[in-house]
Amino acid sequence: MKENIAMSNAELNQIEVMERLVRKEIKQKKAAQILRLSVRQIRRKLYEYKINGAKSLVHKARGKIGNHVIKQKILDEAINIVKEKYWDFGPTLAHEKLVENHECKLSLTTIRKEMVSVGLWKPNRRRKAHIHQLRERRACFGELVQLDGSPHDWFEGRAPKCNLNVFIDDATGIPVLEFGIVETAQDYFKLAEQYFLEHGLPLAIYTDKHSIFRVNTPTNLDYIKPSKNNQFEGLTQFGRAMKELNIELIFASTAQAKGRVERINQTLQDRLVKEMRLNNISSIKEANNFLPQFTKQFVQKFSVKPRSSVDMHRKLNKNVNLRKILCIKENRVLSKNLTFQYQNTIFQIKTQRSAYTLRKTVVTICERYDGSITVWDNKNKQLEYTTIKQLPNTRETNSKKLNQLVDDILIKENYKKRNPWQSDFEELEQPNLFFKPIGAV
User: Fold this and answer.
1) Ramachandran sector of residue 439 (left: φ over 0; alpha: ψ -120 to 50; beta: rest)
2) Is the separation of the CB atoms in 214 and 237 below 8 Å?
3) CA dihedral angle for residue 44, residue 48, residue 53, residue 54, rounded to 10 degrees
4) Where would you tag: which of 19, 71, 214, 368 has the fewest CB atoms within 10 A of its CB?
5) 148 and 265 Cβ atoms separated by less than 8 Å
6) In 317-365, where does DSSP find H-type helix?
7) What is the pTM (predicted TM-score) of this model?
8) pLDDT digit string (tens) for 391-416?
């Protein structure tokens, strides 16, 4: 009875050589050169070929389980942990957590294959590449810092959606992070102060054309000093602060232009969200307390070494008062009674000098992100004040806060569109969107 033998191409080529050896057409040394084997191996193969024929040339380990094959029990234990705790993690992050928290010794490739085989991970199809001009990283630390805000459901429904402000150095990828409710100039001032105190003043900041950073409508000027030669006219509060610190602002026309900070936002929306879930973090305050620990681990994994060892950050001068620069600045003219109004509050200047010397004086009001207010005269001297009266608040709310309020109302009212041609022109039940802005009367 004939027997079918599965052989590779290399093993089939050996049959012809062995037959020529049997017929003594070639010598063993020549056969060893043809098959790239030693003469000793040829002698052994020839001896077995004469006894068992072509079957002796088949590799003896074929069809057997390898000695280094991972036991299925170990694979099942790892996958069960992933199913229980890291069910929505990608293979890379899941493998990191298995190694850190469960002493798993399996490789990343093995974890990925098992997650794909059981349906926990579906490999993404490679999208058609969009070609953008490559911009090489800056050579020095502190030469360029990219800035962006990332609104996202960071707490996965455990708390309202919020915003993550991100500073990232272009050369090294070292980030500085801070959570806030929405993007505001005060939040960016707080993050900038944290970065400047930690590293120093960078040469330039790369950001988008958000109205916080740039005046897009010429009629809406945040900071106009009542003087003929106003060096800050046409600048936003953030732009004015950067100009005072001699930091260049560069505005990106597209998201791809500042792709480095955009990519880190994508990474954070995956890794940071899951880390906060594992640590049971459900508020902005808890998240900000957790960020230093997360940032330290993030830098160890994703930061790169700059091409140059020169640090381009400028050290803070003793004469530079960040508390007076990184704040909202507005000007007021003192009345005859040395009073002025700011944010629907009447303030009274306290002075031991004659009131005549300060009448009609232009004062600068500096409001910090923590709510503290200081008043400075035109000679750069701080003035003491008291609060006299709180007026009804008629200020309009921030546009982003207004949009967030609209979204919250639509969710609470469970707004649903209905067909007006049904129910005999029955009046639609819609939420009342004619509400007043925050603080309006």
Assistant:
1) left
2) no
3) -50
4) 71
5) yes
6) 322-325
7) 0.70
8) 776 554 555 555 665 565 555 554 44
